[in-house]
Amino acid sequence: MRCGLIGRKLAHSFSPEIHAELDAYAYKLYELEPEAVENFVRRGPLDAFNVTIPYKETVLPMMDELSERARRIGSVNTVVRRTDGTLFGDNTDADGMLYMFRRAGFCMTGKKVLVLGSGGSSRTACAVLKDLGAYPVVISRKGENNYGNLRLHADAEYIINTTPVGMYPNCGVSPLDISGFPRLCGVADIIYNPARTKLLLDCEAVGIPCINGLTMLVDQGRRASEIFTGKSIPESATDAIVGKIARRTENIVLIGMPGCGKSTVGQIIAERLGRPFCDADAELSARTGRSVPEIIRTDGEDAFRRLETECAAELGKRSGTVIACGGGVVTREENYPLYHQNGIILWLDRPVEELPVDGRPISQSRSVKVLYAERMPMYRKWSDITVSAAKTAEETAKLVLEALKL
User: Which residues are identified as catalytic?
Assistant: First the structure.
């Protein structure tokens, strides 16, 4: 079989990786301009294909037959070219969204759900929610229910974001403030890059269950593959692929005191995993043309910290990178979401008496023991995993990989 994905911008698509895990058919990406879509759909080389934005509604009238679900939702993301040349269109986004809700443990029957956005994904969400017995309310920029009168919907118990607000590269913004919803008990964001949008980070901070869109993406692909091939694929395949992609794309962020070995250990980890490595202080120096000690000596620590945050805002957007942070990165609370949005944060803890101070102006200006005592609560708060440094960098790197289960 010849399969693939059509859309306008597909450079960062995970679909080939997903379908390679599901079956052995060829699956390629086809970036099309609007004027080329109809000819490709009707007379192209593919036996079956998926459709992504902005063409899910465009292809609808080109289908010879639609599933009841695709007709009801008004968009198609899965197409099969039958042996007689006719085209059958279906919508497996609904399957993926339903599985995402189930995977998050959301109980939405009888609940009021705000659906942010009014595009194709919003229509899919509303159809799924109605099937579940929920009461969806679409929030858009204009119309009766909009972002200017969200106070009228403070009783909502779930929120589904179907907009691109907060998506890479425009990270760090949220479509709304969750503090205005005191009954909120679950949030889903169909964005999966970054892994944690600001909306999801805000939920994490106050303990509200939340989930990103990677599960939806993979499960709609699983269901599409079933339609392509006629073979049944267990839902466990979705969880396995989600885990594999998440591990591959997640940054490994190392924090800890100056001199604890973050850079050396990080380089070893990156080499063993075949990943890129970045030393945040070295990156900052390359950008400014000055060393960290020079910046602190001439401009002061506050100026250096501002530059460090600017650097973190860019480094945190990367995927699949091993990042060694400066020792004091934890002293600015705003740095945490920048690194956590796409990363697992690991504290490399080394005994104070083993920490060197040469070439480290902040460690030289103050007692290392005092500095460690001040920063330890912040390291602990930031870290997902703590690893005690071993005698050698190689041994420590081994402990890190074991802790990460990589």
Answer: 56
